[in-house]
Design goal:
alpha/beta; Isopropylmalate Dehydrogenase; twelve-stranded mixed β-sheet; 12 strands
Length: 332
């Protein structure tokens, strides 16, 4: 088929994933070729579907029905109530989507939200989240999670770990890899020839000259200076509380943050509905909506599909042209 085909993994069946996938297909069916992977029973009642045997068949149905690659689960889904026996199915669907992307049968993978505790409790899931699992599935040396919207791009250097573990996990090697992979991803996937990066400090006021922590003085600032000397436009460390107002955001293409909430709070505050999770450093294109399973509203038909729509649209355009055009989180 001429248009890039985006596979959508089902995510947690008891969450809003199936609902927002169906809504995204309805909104994008004339624009993007899609195939959903999961148990058809978990889609909202009344969703027009076409069960297919291979992704190659998706083109025959893409505008009149949601193409579905069936993946049987042990149990039906009760919205808002996680079913542990379905956990392994969720994990297997992600792996199946990655395999299809690696083989070239689909051009990109968009993953619906998962509930990590359910996967751990129900199937002994060994990874903190999607990003780390995708890294393992693709044998990627290092993957980087970037959250992108028209308003802001942020990258957390440490991701799904307790705050008390950050100072142990955060190392010069990890920060270097995060900066370099982000720069390469912005060049190769977002069409930004000379990306401008800023790095947030770990401590309040970026340590304030050592009065509030010495990591900035001892190794973060020297590392940034060394990387900048290699002809990469990166500056910092900057105080995290001054990096995200409008004037500051105009001066960079992405902000490298030290831990999960330092990165995700600003983007979710500025553009909650349109944020997209993009995994950089993988041999496949992967995007995801920037929100969770939303058990509290699952099954009520009120879930906002905007982030899923943007994630699918971005995946398709990245796959189709190598880089997304201006206005789709690329160079403005």
């Amino acid at each position: 088929m001429s248009a890039p085909l985006v596979a959508i993994s089902c995510g947690e069946p008891a969450g809003v994933g199936p609902e927002i996938a169906a809504k995204a297909w309805a909104a994008l069916r004339a624009e993007v070729a899609m195939v959903w992977i999961g148990d058809p029973r978990h889609l909202p009642a009344g969703t027009p579907i076409a069960e297919i045997d291979s992704p190659a068949e998706a083109a025959q149905h893409s505008t009149d029905a949601l193409p579905v690659l069936p993946h049987a689960f042990p149990a039906a889904a009760q919205p808002g109530v996680a079913t542990p026996e379905n956990a392994q199915g969720v994990i297997d669907v992600i792996a199946r989507g990655v395999a299809l992307a690696r083989s070239g049968e689909v051009a990109a993978l968009c993953t619906a939200p998962i509930h990590k505790k359910v996967l751990i409790d129900g199937a002994g899931f060994a990874y903190p989240g999607h990003t780390e699992y995708l890294e393992a599935l693709t044998d990627a040396p290092r993957a980087v999670m970037m959250l992108a919207s028209e308003a802001l791009r942020v990258v957390p250097t440490t991701i799904h770990i307790a705050l008390e573990e950050v100072t142990t996990v955060l190392t010069p090697e990890l920060l270097r890899h995060t900066i370099e992979i982000t720069a390469e991803g912005l060049r190769s996937q977002f069409g930004i020839a000379n990306p401008r990066l800023v790095v947030a400090g770990l401590n309040p006021h970026a340590g304030e000259g050592g009065a509030m922590g010495r990591q900035e003085l001892d190794w973060i600032a020297p590392l940034i200076a060394e990387i900048a000397a290699s002809d990469l436009d990166v500056t910092g460390p900057w105080p995290g509380d001054t990096l995200f107002h409008s004037a500051a955001r105009a001066r960079y293409d992405a902000a490298i943050c030290m831990y999960h909430d330092q990165a995700l709070i600003p983007i979710k505050t500025l553009d909650f509905d349109r944020g997209v999770n993009v995994t950089l450093g993988l041999p496949i294109i992967r995007t995801s909506p920037d929100h969770g399973t939303a058990f509290d509203i699952a099954g009520q038909g009120i879930a906002n599909p905007t982030s899923m729509i943007e994630a699918i649209r971005l995946a398709a355009r990245m796959a189709g042209s190598g880089t997304p055009p201006a206005g789709i989180f690329g160079e403005q």
